[in-house]
Amino acid sequence: MSGKLKVVIDKPACCGYGLCAEICPEVYKLDANGIVYVENEIVPAGLEERATEAADACPQAALAVVAA
Q1: What pTM does this model have?
Q2: Quick one: three-class SS letters along 40-66?
Q3: C-alpha distances in angstroms, 26 versus 12, 48, 59?
Q4: CB 36 within 8 A of CB 20
């Protein structure tokens, strides 16, 4: 993958499984209620593959990694 990627979150769909944060904690964080958030929607260089894998692992399909 080339070019920058960004994370898109469907917060209402997040059920707090936390798989994303387990797979790629550098990108995905969980708030006090266990709901996913990111500190920066742009995926840091070198983490694109893990960020995408983590988004794909979401049981609720609440995450997507798309071209920025």
Answers
A1: 0.93
A2: CCECCCCCHHHHHHHHHCCCCCCEEEE
A3: 22, 11, 20
A4: yes
**For residue 60, which amino acid is it?**
Q
Q: Is 33 left (phi over 0), alpha (psi -120 to 50) or beta?
A: alpha
| Mean pLDDT, contiguous 10-residue spans, the chain (68 residues) | 87 97 98 97 97 98 97
pLDDT value of position 44: 97
14, 15, 19, 21: CA torsion to nearest 10: 60
Closest CA to 59 of 8, 30, 27, 17: 17
Average pLDDT, the chain: 96
User: What phi, psi does 17 have (nearest 5°)?
Assistant: -65, -35
The H helix count followed by the E strand count for the chain is 2, 4
